[in-house]
Write a structure and sequence with these properties.
Layout lengths: L1 E10 L2 E11 L3 E6 L5 H8 L7 E6 L2 E2 L4 H7 E4 L12 H8 L7 H14 L15 H13 L5 E5 L7 H13 L3 E5 L11 E6 L2 E6 L1 H12 L1
Parallel strand pairs: 3-8, 3-9, 6-7, 7-8
Antiparallel strand pairs: 1-2, 1-4, 4-5, 9-10
Helix pairs in contact: 3-5
The chain binds adenosine-5'-triphosphate.
Length: about 220
């Protein structure tokens, strides 16, 4: 599903990722590590937002270097700050904007938008200004705008950072139910507790890779 082969990323004078090799086929994969350890860069490699300096990343059977546009259609990406993803005035318009290049009839767009807003609890906000939503609701809106495209893989970079406990739990619950493969970068360790696999990054290298218990245990040790 997602294959990293001896991936190095150099940004400016810094070696941000140093020889990452991993094959991710589990449904829910978490990535933890200290600030600056390379987690966001790793996440961005998955949809071609970042490219390896050497080595390769293959997603859905395609090399991200050669098939960036196709890969972006199959890989949804959620940024930490949902405001960065809001582009249209109202909630429904913002979700519909995601579908603009699909060539769908207007009625079908409206139906898909209504369905996804209902699924994630935003049906009552369809005509509200997107920027008036609460932080948690904006996170849900960003999720709707990605999920309406029915991606095969969902990558989330610190999705609960701005959320209160209730909304964090809601995201955790959603992650449990999503049919998609998800890769979640997070400092929110409880969020990852029931994931299938967790990678620990340290200074651009994978230093632990296993069950949440094993990997998070290792992470706690190196951070103590
Ligand atoms: N465009 C860039 N040019 C130079 N260095 C960069 C660039 N982008 C990121 N870096 C550096 O790469 C390193 C890894 O950054 P990255 O954002 O991947 O880390 P992270 O583990 O996600 O950190 P955090 O937990 O703080 O979000 C950092 O030291 C950062 O300063």
């Amino acid at each position: 599903m997602i294959e990293f082969t001896d991936v190095h990323v150099r940004l400016g004078s810094r070696n941000v990722l140093c020889g990452i090799t991993a094959s991710l086929s589990e449904r829910r994969v978490g990535v933890v590590g200290a600030n600056g350890s390379g987690k966001s860069t790793l996440a961005r490699l998955i949809n071609g937002l970042a490219l390896p300096t050497s080595g390769s990343v293959t997603v859905l059977g395609m090399d991200t270097r050669r098939h960036a546009a196709k890969i972006r259609r199959g890989v949804g990406f959620l940024f930490t700050d949902p405001d960065a993803q809001i582009v249209m005035p109202t909630v429904a318009e913002d979700v519909a904007f995601s579908l603009r290049r699909r060539g769908l009839p207007r009625a079908e767009v409206e139906q898909r938008v209504a369905d996804v807003l209902a699924r994630y609890g935003l049906a009552g906000h369809a005509d509200h200004p997107a920027h008036h939503l609460s932080g948690g609701q904006k996170q849900l809106l960003a999720l709707c705008s990605v999920m309406v495209l029915e991606p095969d893989v969902l990558v989330m970079d610190e999705p609960t950072t701005l959320l209160d406990l209730r909304h964090s739990r809601q995201v955790a619950e959603l992650l449990r139910e999503l049919p998609q493969h998800v890769v979640v970068v997070s400092h929110d360790l409880p969020l990852l507790a029931d994931f299938d696999r967790v990678l620990v990054l340290d200074q651009g290298r994978v230093v632990a890779d296993g069950t949440p218990d094993e990997a998070i245990g290792h992470y706690r040790k190196i951070m103590s």
